[in-house]
Amino acid sequence: MSGQNMGWKLAEDDRNALLGRFPPRYDAVVAHHVTYGEVDSADELPGHTSGRVVGHADDGEGVETLVVELGGSTERPTGGTYHITWSLADGRAPVESNDVIAACGWDEFAGGPAFALKPPTRL
User: Fold this and answer.
1) Which residues pair with 38 in a beta bridge?
2) How far apart are CA 43 and CA 61, in angstroms?
């Protein structure tokens, strides 16, 4: 059996608070979840119940993402960077977020807000 893309959805109240603090730049607002990566079941994911926004990336061409720290790290064990795809322009896709972070880097900021995560789920 091949793996499924798994992660954590944002708690609705925290999602709304983050949207108020970080107004999306592009028309398609995603702001939905933090991806872990491919695993066979939610049982394989770390038991994270919260995260913290620690940075921002934007390629200026339609992909905006918030960089997230989970369990003291921004690096996903499955590769890439923990993030929330924040907003997209027409023709762009959430799957591009890690490529934008890798190509453009991200602006780090201290004191970013914490937020709650729902239990792990298939995305």
Assistant:
1) 5
2) 37
The total of other beta-carbon atoms located within 10 Å of residue 72's CB is: 6
Does the pTM surpass 0.85? The reply is: yes
Residue 1, judged by CB atoms within 10 A of its CB (0-12, 13-18, 19+), counts as: exposed
Residue 81 neighbours by CB distance under 10 Å: 21
Residues 21, 89, 81, 14: what is their CA dihedral angle, to the nearest 10 degrees?
A: 30
**CB neighbourhood size of 66 (10 A):** 26
Q: Per residue of the chain (123 residues), give pLDDT as tens.
A: 467 889 999 999 999 999 999 999 999 999 999 999 888 876 778 889 999 999 999 999 999 999 999 999 999 998 999 999 999 999 999 999 999 999 999 999 888 999 999 998 888
Q: Kindly compute the dihedral angle of the four CA atoms of residues 113, 47, 97, 69, in this order, to the nearest 10 degrees.
A: 40
Residue 114: both structure tokens together: 């914490």
